[in-house]
Design brief:
With 300 residues, the protein is an alpha+beta fold. It is 25% helix and 32% strand. It folds into 2 domains: 2-131 and 182-188, Rossmann fold; 217-299, no CATH class.
Length: 300
């Protein structure tokens, strides 16, 4: 065990990123049972710089050997869920394999959450700190402790673009990182990890998950009339609730006999959400009795 931990500690510090697939091998759907969301959350919780496989930073796109790809080894049986995590380098070689996490929960989402959490015990003894290699001098290096940027070719570029280049680079870096960690993407916010990872809470009626509590939230009364940005549709028994990237519930939709029409209720009032020419619209009357039509960008 001591040899295993020493090997893993030394190896993991050589890699700048942990890459998490949005769909693990063996699963039919993207983020099925929210496995990708949970794995990414636990890595970030333990201090790793973790990204999804379709949102790679520029330096990782240029050099895939800066990151380790996460694989989920599923050895589940009919009566129990068993998973282990594998970290593979750019050549497909396995750098580390965790202990096997197990769960006998019948609900698949809860079972995978419990098993993945147990597998992450393998990282408890690690103190991760990325150590750049000497041949990474042509890359943009980030000192996560102070978020300090080093550009080896800064002097040459400053002659041709003295301020513009540095300003653009700083803007990109600020958009990509915050306090040494990636800023949460819209995908991550839409698949809010709090709805999955938070422990079961006991109430008088019995244990309910935070996901159920989240679905029961009321529409925010302070939501402005104008609805902008991408809205994510979360399925309810009788329709959907539309949330923004905060996430905040902006509208609740109830199904009708026509799949392209929904009864809608939100802070702006009651109305109708419908599809026309491939676009979605929300029509309702304002306080002055005027009919208002807003185009919505809905992701189902």
């Amino acid at each position: 065990m001591l040899g295993f931990l020493a090997f893993g500690q030394t190896s993991l510090n050589d890699y700048k990123y942990i890459i998490v697939p949005k769909r693990f091998d063996g699963f039919k759907k993207e983020n099925q049972y929210q496995t990708s969301t949970m794995v990414k959350h636990y890595f970030a919780q333990k201090g790793y710089n973790v990204v999804y496989d379709d949102a790679l930073p520029n330096d990782l796109n240029g050099n895939r050997c800066l990151g380790l790809l996460t694989a989920l080894e599923d050895n589940s049986s009919m009566f129990s869920t068993k998973v282990a995590l594998l970290l593979k380098d750019c050549n497909g070689a396995t750098v580390m394999t965790t202990v096997e996490g197990k769960s006998k929960e019948k609900d698949f989402k809860e079972a995978y959450r419990e098993a993945i959490k147990e597998a992450f015990r393998s990282f408890d003894s690690f103190s991760y700190s990325y150590i750049p290699k000497n041949d990474d001098s042509d890359q943009v290096n980030l000192n996560f402790k102070g978020d300090v940027k080093k550009l080896e070719k800064k002097k040459k570029e400053a002659k041709n673009h003295p301020k513009k280049e540095v300003s653009q680079e700083s803007t990109v870096e600020r958009q990509s990182f915050k306090d040494g960690a990636p800023i949460e993407s819209e995908y991550e916010k839409a698949n809010t990890v709090d709805a999955v990872v938070e422990e079961v809470v006991n109430t008088e009626e019995g244990p309910i998950s935070s996901e159920v509590r989240k679905s029961s939230q009321q529409v925010d009364e302070n939501t402005p009339e104008k609805i902008d940005g991408v809205l994510y549709a979360q399925e309810l028994p009788n329709g959907y609730q539309l949330v923004d990237s905060t996430p905040k519930i902006l509208l609740k939709l109830k199904k009708t006999s026509n799949s392209n029409y929904f009864l809608a209720e939100g802070a702006a009032g009651q109305g109708m959400v419908f599809s026309k020419d491939g676009k979605w619209y929300f029509e309702h009357y304002d306080n002055d009795g005027k009919l208002v039509s807003e185009e919505l960008n809905i992701k189902f």
